[in-house]
Protein 1
Amino acid sequence: MKKPKSKQVRIQSRNTEVQEIQLLEKWIEFGKPESGSNPLSLPPLPAKSPIGRIDENTYSQYAGCTKFQQLPISKNLKDGLRQAGYKNMTNIQRASLPHSLSGRDILGAAKTGSGKTLAFIIPVLEKLYKARWGLEDGVGSIIMSPTRELADQLFGVLKSVGKHHGFSAGLLIGGHEYDEEKDHVNRMNILICTPGRLLKHMDTTPNFDCSQLQVLVLDEADRILDAGFKKEVNAIVSQLPKHRQTLLFSATQTKSVKDLARLSLKDPEYIAVDEESIAATPNRLQQKVILVPLDQKLDMLWSFIKAHLNSRILVFLSTCKQVRFVHEAFKKLRPGIPLKCLHGRMKQVKRMFILQQFVEQRSVLFSTDVSSRGLDFNKGVDWVVQVDCPDDVATYIHRVGRTARYDSIGRSVLFLLPSEMKMLERLQEKKIPVEFDKPNTKRLQSVSGLLAALLAKYKDLQPLAQRAFKTYVKSIYKQKDKEIFDVTKLPIDDFSASLGLPMTPQLRYLNRKDIDKNTPGEPVSVPQIPAKKDFIRPKPSNDLLEESDDEEILDLLRSKETTDGDDAKAIAADNLPTTRVLKKKKLKINVHRPVGTRVVFDEEGNTLPPLARLADIGTTDSGLLDKQKVMERFAELREEMKTRDQEDKLLDRKRRKEKRIKEKEKYKRARNEEEEDDDEDDFSGSDKDSKKVKGSKVYFDSDSDGDMKDKAAIKTDEISLAEQEELALKLLSSMH
Ligand code: ADP
Ligand code: MG
């Protein structure tokens, strides 16, 4: 009588598994935390509240829970965790698991020793369990570690908490018998490995197949993504399917855009749990600082907007006039996303109206600190772009606080001039987790040429541009913190040209009449600059335009001036290659040159006629803009094609996935039927393969000593038939 009973138990146990998976999926779907939200910020669940299904369509909340037992995870895993002594979750586990169990990509950072290992082992086991992964499915997850020792530790954790799951796991690390690994590697569901060893298998092991990979994990991701492993990681990732879940964990946030692009992360959840960072800025906020020379700021902003046409972007500029100019000019260039602006002159009602529109649809809002103050972006925005450096750290926090509200994720980017790098230190001192990065200039689209054409065409834009220029320079001049803001280091001619202005406007307070007082050609050594900085501190009178102040500013600018021939020498001596210096001679030439004939040099140093790049194509002024329209249309079409392409790809992927699932189901059905038909079948049966497929946990550990691995292969905790039956019965009785 025993055998029929065991068959029945097996069928029931399978049904129980299917039911459990269905329940878990519904439960997870029901309580999915908002993308970008931090479960840590939710109040903890009451200790005695029910867990799992509450009634027909209601399930218990798991975002915000504190115990592993409250999570929507399988009973197998709950048992494994409990037996390994894990009860309460650590912060990184609480913050990341509700997201990762819902299938999201994760970028998690928490101090060493904070429990990151379980934060990725749990979702790996559950993902495969819910997919009913079996030996025949091959490699379902790869967990990469930078060192053998760490890989070994991870393997240990996996074995202990995953012992009730039926997965095979392999440890692929250097220093062991490679050939023996080769024999097993294709039968492993979970591979824990170092990048070098994995790549070796990918390259040389016949039939090594990762095409069904479900989850990729990088532990100590910052180390794996750094230069040492770059080649290996690139080669590995290029062979993995893009449609997968990716989990990155490290002690520091690794958010370099390039790294993420390499790993094809999809809207990852940024999870940082260190106390200090939570205190200063929301931890769902990804904060980047990039170095942008003043004359490339608009190019960078334009390129940024063009690259984020589906977002809500809040752009901060220093002055009202800049806001108006950039808004007007960019509007005429039609980036393909609605542009709006908020400035101090607007009535509150209008501001609210604009704000409302901004929150409701993808668009770009240009604003100053003053006009945005007091307005609450209750839904948060996707991006805060600080084109101009904030006055101080408090203003920085205020600005980025506009994004990443409680229920949303946010990103921010701050453009800093080379002379403003001190601001980065200030932010870091205040424990604000900013990431400094060099911008990707490959995709930088230049707009200064287009702006020059616009300014020539729309006459009323020119005064706007001039005022934008003047007010910006003045705002820097008026800044109190001279360690960060140094008007003398602004490349003002280049800046003016970058706004499309044919010549640099006169700055009233930069009186140039005494310009020749300076010793011609005297080089300025770097140490002189800080010494002179003191001069431009505003006087207590606060009247910044006082004659004496002007003199001092002038003095400073002049100190870098040279006669023509010494220009290069002086700049070299200055060691500030991005800083161009006002020259008297240049001003004279500019004064007599008609508007719109700025001299441009080509790559060989020959002068080109005004707007040569566009004139090249032999168009008139209006033709220019037609050409531009055509280009825009092309760009739009390209975008459109891209989206369609993407849709097609998705569809194709979906179809292939459905096909795969069908095949798998067919296989499993056949297997189940075979099992049901075969009364004599049991685990001691002759079919060795099906034995492995069905019940056992095969752990292959290449670390174990030389003797035959097959022995070591079934290394851990195989549950006997009797134990299985007992477990299934327990499971069944617990369901009633
Ligand atoms: P990290 O990877 O962040 O450095 P680990 O995952 O190695 O941290 O965990 C550090 C230690 O904390 C390990 O000994 C681990 O067993 C223990 N640990 C992890 N999570 C928990 C938990 N929820 N409860 C108790 N101990 C835990
Ligand atoms: Mg770790």
Protein 2
Amino acid sequence: MSKKLFIETLGCAMNSRDSEHMIAQLHEREGYETTDDLKAADLILINTCSVREKPVAKLFSELGVFNKKKKEGAKIGVCGCTASHLGEEIIKRAPYVNFVLGARNVSKISEVLHKDRAVEVDINYDESEFAFDDFRTSPYKAYINISIGCDKQCTFCIVPKTRGEEISIPDNLIIQEAQKAVDAGAKEIFLLGQNVNNYGRRFSGDQEKVNFTELLRRLSKIEKLERIRFTSPHPFHMDDAFIEEFAKNPKICKSMHMPLQSGSTKVLKDMKRGYTKEWFINRVEKLRAECPEVSISTDIIVAFPGESDADFEDTIDVMKKVRFDQIFSFKYSPRPETEAEHYTNIVDPEVASDRLSYLQALHTQILDEKNAQQMGRVYRVYFEDLNADNYVSGRTDSNLVVKVKGSEELLGEFRDVKITAIGRTILTGEILE
Ligand code: SAH
Ligand code: F3S
């Protein structure tokens, strides 16, 4: 009987890709198969996120539960960003943890598995990071790393500490990986990096200086590849050439993530984001002028240290002007080893909660207004998931999730769908024959 692996993945798409790589390595080298049953597992892995404080606190309570429920002799490993930043401390606080493997070290999974109490959290450059396994949890969509780490120093962000210096993966390796995924049946690729449109800033060796716009052009030449998505681009690097390529290249999905963080130029400066409120709005205007059908999503942090009522009003002002299609919003959470950790002008927690609720309520209203216009519209949908009650769901080019009645024959297929019912997170439709 094969050994069983239970893996929990938290955080961003990069963590999902890291998990795919670990699942594949453990399968090929160690004979593991995945299981959803914790009690049946011989190895339990938690692939963690440390961007905010809450998931870190949750980790230790969850580890306690896993340790109680696990079967006799099962191993527990902690991977990902929290592993990188806490390192040995995890084993000190939870001595039953067998190994700790940082976000940048996932290729070493089968090495640490056989060492007692191994802690592998080095963030230096290592070429093994470039050769991820072909295995993908979804055969329809291939996540592909294009760069690792982040060179920005946003004062709130722990990622540069956990994922290290930014290195771009050579474009020929990315194109090869994309070609293989397409040959295996994927019609969509999803390019990943903390700062994708800074691609080409630094390569590990001598290599032609290809930038992100050029990488997109080269990838879109792959025959049978129909959709290209990416996350996350940085508003600072959204130059005209990039926006124009985005708009005119038919393979690039017309959905852009533009992490605003704050609408106040003063707060943006304190965050060291490198752009102003005006620049952000200017980029949105350029994008919409070139590509009127684009949908725009964002990340917003409220109550960054020193954020005044007037600063928050600026964020609200940008929300009203841009009318984002989707927002991911958070209360500021101080993180170790970041510059803002030492800022003392903390916003009152009650004010922070009020601001978050206000922002989210405003967005819900915007979303409802936008959704009301979806009724009867027709979209091309790429189906990827089987849902309950004989529904199949997929995404539009603009990243709306749509479900229709149907079966697995639809998976991996494109269809024109007319919207017949509206929900906040998912639309319902009918296939047009
Ligand atoms: N480069 C990535 C950032 C990864 S972190 C990107 O642009 O998506 C993902 C999001 O978490 C950030 O955009 C930010 O909105 C949020 N975040 C990061 N650090 C945070 C902190 N200390 N407190 C609250 N939210 C934070
Ligand atoms: Fe973090 Fe800023 Fe990089 S949000 S991941 S330091 S672009």
